[in-house]
Hints:
Pfam family, one: rva_4
InterPro entries: Integrase_dom_put
Helix content: 40-55%
Number of helices: 6
Largest sheet: 4 strands, mixed
Shape: flat
Radius of gyration: 26 Å
Protein name: Integrase core domain-containing protein
Structural class: alpha+beta
Distance between the termini: 65 Å
Strand content: 5-15%
Oligomer: single chain
Amino acid sequence: MSKGFYNNLTWKAHVLRRRSYTNPGTNFAWHIDGYDKLKPYGFPIHGGVDSFSCRVMWLKICPLNNDPWYVASLFYDCVKSNRGCVRVLRTDCGTENVTMAAMQCYFRGNDILQVDLDHVRDHWNTHYLRKSHHDTVPGRPHELFYLPENSGFEDFRSPITEQQFDDMAVYCTTDEEENIFEEYFNYALESLNLHRPTN
Length: 199
């Protein structure tokens, strides 16, 4: 065998392995980036691709592919024509993506975030905690909370009357506080002369 063959084997041994990438379906993640190779000739390009289907969501020659407002308007137009927002944006950390990322968070809304948080809470509360060096009681959090006697413990909850709840309710606010992100995006939509998607 030739010396080149062995060098090739050595080189291949040092190649980084790719991470596995899974995507559960369409509109789960879009990969978004600008292309600057043709920028010196007056053709900055910006595009987005759905990572599950590999469908090109937009591919535009634009005046500036690094202007946050212009990039956000490309994203906005795509979301509007798609009649719904993607769950995850995969972008670089460039400043041109910050308005688009914030817009995506706003479009997804608190309800979608709450669904994700509920899923995390339910997953945590139903998984098994092993005994550890930190005096953790082994078991599933739901069972430990609702049936502590099954693990040899007791429930120390103090009963509360309706009158006590009423007395303390005056110290609680039930009105939703103004969402600073909503205020920002209303400003962004107005500045760009855009309209909020209907769904």
